[in-house]
Design brief:
An 8-stranded antiparallel barrel has the order 1-2-3-4-5-6-7-8. 27% of the residues lie in helices and 42% in strands. It is an alpha+beta fold.
Length: 172
């Protein structure tokens, strides 16, 4: 975005320097340009092309999903192993959310971990959460949330076969 803004400024400077009502080659200062149509057009273009994308990008990248409805509730999903082609199944996870922190419970069928608790984070559209049964087994999920749907990848520890694969879920 900084490059785009600088390019817009460079273009504005070139247009402003090149404009002269007297036909001479000497550049005019910004105070001598006044409210000329060229100066107004360039200023409007630079403002509209540089300020809107900067503000929307900043909001998307740093704003955690908030509000009880952002992620809280019951989600039903499926998973498919990449390591073991015959390993696939379904899961149900129920989340609570406080700012960017998520907690809840999960049931996975079939799995080396049939039920457990989850905790993780949601920032923008990026979600990461893990599920643990006791202290010996864990599955880590990461992915992207898009409205009432989410998808991503998972990885289980050695106690669960050091598996990895993909998952998808929808709010139910």
């Amino acid at each position: 975005m900084r490059l785009r803004f600088m390019a817009g400024c460079a273009a504005a400077c070139l247009v402003l320097v090149g404009c002269s009502s007297s036909g001479g080659n000497a550049p005019k200062s910004s105070s001598s340009l006044g409210n000329s149509p060229a100066a107004t057009a360039v200023a409007t273009e630079v403002a509209s092309s540089s300020s809107a994308p900067l503000s929307s990008t900043a909001a998307e990248s740093s704003t955690p999903a908030t509000g009880a409805s952002a992620l809280a509730g019951r989600w039903q999903g499926t998973y498919q192993s990449k390591k073991f082609s015959s390993t696939a199944g379904d899961f149900t996870v129920t989340f609570t959310q406080q700012d960017s922190t998520i907690n809840g419970s999960i049931v996975i069928h079939p799995s080396c971990i049939t039920a457990g608790t989850v905790s993780g984070t949601i920032t923008g559209t990026t979600i990461a959460f893990g599920q643990v049964q006791g202290s010996r087994r864990a599955v880590a999920f990461s992915g992207t949330v898009n409205g009432n749907n989410m998808h991503g990848t998972y990885h289980s520890d050695a106690a669960c076969g050091d598996d990895n694969g993909t998952w998808t879920a929808a709010r139910s």
